[in-house]
Design brief:
By secondary structure, this protein is mostly helical. The chain is built from 18 helices and no strands. It starts with 11 loop residues before the first helix and ends with a helix. The protein binds phenylalanine. Phenylalanine (PHE) binds next to helix 1, helix 2, helix 10 and helix 14.
Length: about 450
């Protein structure tokens, strides 16, 4: 175990910004609309919101609690809080999930760089909806470009992680997230004033109970975990850098609200346009990339907005990829006792190999399938819908039943100096509601009950 001074976040806003930076990203703007589109629209949103409140917030707060009280990476945290017990396995699975998420997520982040490039080169102008559709499919089926952008994004991520927590992560997230928010609002206004926008809003907000299925519920749970960055120890790791005087409950609530708001606003930008331009809502992983350029075409100043948007989206993705890489780096550097730099290089090389396969899922590696899914599909599905909920289940069980109420209370009340009146509710949620909900959704979704 290392005893040296650990890095920490410099300010309260820095903590929220970094955690929100991790949570807000492609999960909200790319994944949320595509999964919602495939899973019945409004009914998905409703279930999503219920699960975020009942399960998401408790898991997030549990991660902060574990991380700040142990001040270690996820594996080390469980080793420290439950010595000699197998809980550290939860940390290890989380670290495996981090590798997998980083590999496919950075591929999508690479697509945003391609689209930033296209925006600058004015590549969307004058193209019909069919052209835009084809442009994306052709790009993604190529070999060189998807891999190149993926590698560039991976390098940027590694560079920031090597430069350290406070100087690196905090500096970037603090300033940029508010800008992204404003830009999405502007897109929303344009989208809801498109002819035929009403259909899209109805699809997003009007639940159609007949479209509910076990899989929809599992997808909503998985999306909640993915979007909030929970279930694999990202927020245990970030929690371990949070100062003793920060309010963990408040932070968890603020981050969840911000993340959820951005996802909904992204939906409000996308679905009216999806219906206005007759794109199938169940289009899948290309949905956002096939829709957004069409909105920009319809905007005064669309050229500039497109550039700003893809730039900020890449940055939002970057603040998420650094949080995922940070999990692996904290683990390697603390447990193998290697330098931050060596840890980052080791992790990036491994993820790099896996990502090159994932990036090829529509191109050079498209023949390869496991259980009828591409490498990309497997990584996306398995992490969000299986590994994260599983991790979340054990995290709340640990905090609810094994960590000791006394210790949890001390952590959430900052050693007794805060009232933290929500504590009884939190304890009830982590002990009963969240684990039961996860277990039911999970078993139901996989067809076990
Ligand atoms: N929550 C991030 C997003 O929505 C992705 C992520 C998942 C980050 C898991 C960390 C851990 O973009």
């Amino acid at each position: 175990m290392q005893t040296d001074q650990r890095d920490s976040f410099g300010s309260r806003f820095g903590v929220i910004a970094a955690a929100a930076g991790s949570a807000i990203g492609l999960g909200n703007i790319w994944r949320f609309p595509y999964v919602l589109g495939e899973n019945g629209g409004g009914i998905f949103l409703l279930i999503y919101l219920i699960l975020v409140a009942m399960v998401g917030i408790p898991v997030m707060l549990s991660e902060f609690t574990i991380g700040r009280s142990a001040r270690r990476n996820p594996y080390g945290s469980f080793r420290k809080l439950a010595p000699g017990k197998p809980w550290y396995l939860v940390g290890l699975v989380g670290i495996a999930a981090a590798f997998m998420i980083l590999a496919f997520y950075t591929v999508v982040a690479g697509w945003t760089l391609e689209y930033l490039y296209q925006a600058i080169a004015n590549g969307f102008s004058g193209k019909s909806s069919t052209d835009i559709n084809q442009m994306f499919d052709t790009f993604r089926a190529g070999t060189f470009r998807p891999i190149l952008w993926f590698l560039i994004f991976m390098l940027m991520t590694s560079w920031i992680v090597i430069s350290g927590i406070r100087k690196g992560i905090e500096k970037y997230t603090k300033v940029l997230m508010p800008f992204l928010f404003i830009l999405i609002l502007i897109l929303d206004i344009r989208a809801i004033t498109l002819p035929g926008a009403g259909e899209g809003l109805k699809f997003l907000f009007k639940p159609d109970i007949s479209k509910i299925s076990a899989e929809t519920i599992l997808e909503a749970l998985g999306q909640g975990f993915f979007s909030l960055s929970i279930g694999m120890g990202t927020l245990i790791t970030y929690g371990s850098y949070i100062g003793n005087r920060e309010r963990l409950g408040n932070t968890a609530l603020n981050v969840t609200l911000a993340d959820t708001l951005i996802a909904i606003l992204a939906g409000v930008a996308i679905f009216p346009a999806v219906f206005a331009f007759h794109i199938p809502p169940g289009e899948g992983t290309g949905l956002v990339f096939k829709t957004l350029p069409l909105i920009f075409q319809e905007m005064t100043g669309g050229y500039v907005f497109a550039i700003l948007f893809f730039l900020l989206l890449s940055i939002a993705a970057l603040t998420s990829t650094i949080s995922v890489l940070e999990v692996i780096v904290a683990f390697f550097s603390e447990e193998l006792n290697i330098s931050r730099k060596a840890a980052t290089i080791l992790a990036s090389l491994t993820v790099g190999l896996l990502g090159v396969l994932a990036a090829g899922s529509w191109g050079w590696f498209s023949q390869f399938h496991i259980l009828k899914q591409s490498v990309f599909g497997i990584l996306d599905f398995t992490t969000a819908n299986i590994l994260l909920p599983l991790g979340g289940f054990f995290i709340v069980i640990f905090v609810g039943w094994f960590m000791g109420t006394q210790k949890v209370q001390m952590e959430l009340s900052n050693g007794g100096s805060l009232k933290a009146g929500y504590l009884p509710v939190f304890v009830f949620l982590v002990r009963y509601v969240a684990p039961l909900a996860i277990a039911l959704v999970f078993m139901n979704g996989l067809g076990w009950i």
